[in-house]
Amino acid sequence: METTSMQAFGAGIFALALLHTFTAKYFEILAHRHPRHAGLLHLMGEVEVVFGFWALVLVVAMAFVSSGKQALTYVESRQYTEPLFVFVVMVVAASRPVLEAVGRLLAALARLAPVRTPLALAWLGLAVVPIMGSLITEPAAMTLAALMLAPQIFRKGMPEWLKYAALGVLFVNVSIGGTLTAYAAPPVLMVATTWQWDSAFMATTFGWRACLAVLINSTVVTFLLRSHLRDADAGSARGHAKPVPWVVSAIHLAFLAGVVAFAHHPVVFIGLFLFFLGYTQAYEHYQNPLILKQGLLVGFFLAGLVVLGGMQQWWLQPIVSTLEPTALFFGALALTAITDNAALTYLGSLIAGMSDHAKYMLVAGSVAGGGLTVIANAPNPAGVALLRRGFDDDSIGTVGLILGALPPTMMAALFFLL
Fold it and tell me: What is the pTM of this model?
């Protein structure tokens, strides 16, 4: 494929966005050192802002180099269903009635476990909730797990290396935990229809391997956390709030189920979301403030990734199409760290004549590497937005995340290669 100047420019902007992602934590450090410019530096240190900012740079440059009409045509040609869905499902899943319903269920399971309740709750949040992502989708699982684990693990006072170890396990487990069905994990969703992979195929081919890796990853990191875990403080924060009636929780769960069921139909799930907002206003005494800001930032991040990612097909697809199956697995695992894994599998779905073994290796490598960076898997920005306040400088370092995610990534890769 002949490379145009605009494609080369798009690749350059994408590289700058990646570099910005790796240095986002440094902007937060600068904000503390230079309070006069703290507002701007904090903005540049927001990982969720990075790709949206550089996508804007790309579109403005495209308008100057080509024409405003061509820039507008390109932006409107991109598919924004996933950013919209992640925004909506984050806000609904993080509502107090949903969190309390899931929290009660996990607390009941934790009391049955033959270990201390905080230990059991941490393990359930790192293992069971990510596997639940196969039913409620990965972004919803990430939101629930992050909010439930934050008071226990991702808090000030916990050793920083343990927080990164737990974060790596959470991101990897969410990425592979959604592979028991054909609709919950974005990289699987991109190929399921084209390659005729149904949920039965996913469960028998990917699912059992993913479950074993999730269980081992969660058990190891929970063992490392055991002496630092304490009872969560969430209850005290709600001390004077009215208890949520089961009917209200059931209605919220019904909204969540409706959003998940129509995940590929934005007209429907946005309509449901507007009804949901009206319902929360009508019964606001059973609500906590909705995470609209965090959800919008994550949606902005993913939309920016969609815009920038659309210009990378010219160099990504030749790499994917020329690798042998085993090399394809490791190539996909590595490439996932610098590009969204759903974009990677989508490019694979465009290649004619791929063998079944190559298809498996592409998807397996993409989901196994989904925890390595913030941009590797669509739900990761949601986890970062909800958990970064518990880390030093209120930000999550890219190097720390990679180091924390490497051991669980290697475990996932081992099971997928068996």
Answer: 0.83
